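sanity check this fold:
=====
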Amino acid sequence: MPEIIQLEDVRKTYHIGKVDVPALRGISFTVQAGEFVSIVGPSGSGKSTLFYILGGLTRADSGRVVIGGADFARLSDAERTELRKTKIGFVFQKFNLLPTLDARGNIEIARNIAGVDGVNDSEHFRKITEMLGIARRLHHRPSELSGGEQQRVALARALINKPALVLADEPTGNLDTKNSDIVLAMLRASNKELGQTVLMITHNPEAASYGDRIIHMRDGEIVRPEDDPQWKPKIQ
């Protein structure tokens, strides 16, 4: 399988006043198309910075970031924006739904932004919303939905354009166990049934265990599982 993500010695430092705070200290790994990879680590390990760099939302200070064959360092801002719109689906811990739109509108806005005509793909829309249990909530605005329902709407929005790569940043961080299981099962289904590559950032070892492969981070570096004191494998 081709590599959809290639990172080589990626580094990022934040400058806070006179203090330099290294967030990433030379991250290197690859992800094959069709993989489900979990990035796990405690708060402050650099996971979210990595997420934003992978999504083209911020630039690395140095190193090589290649997504779907496109080298981010060689892309203009407009080209990176186009790549995000058409090739990457984002799921955030904060749902980022538009309060003036109902659930259907919040999902379909991803099609509008990407310039995708969804008229001929109503079956995909139906399948996703039914699998996520929100088919009967499509005419409700975010304020009328529970937190779990809002996250499921956000996940449907990320998947609706069938992106090659789905990036999820703590997608279950604000959810109870039931809604967490629904969201994780849908990410798994999108990976196995639709062939989408999923990279999930999480601090939760149990959520991370849904991945085919787990990469551990601490203090801006990749570490071995046995070096991660917070790691406890899911009991099967």
User: Anything to note?
Assistant: The domain at 3-227 is CATH 3.40.50.300 (Rossmann fold).
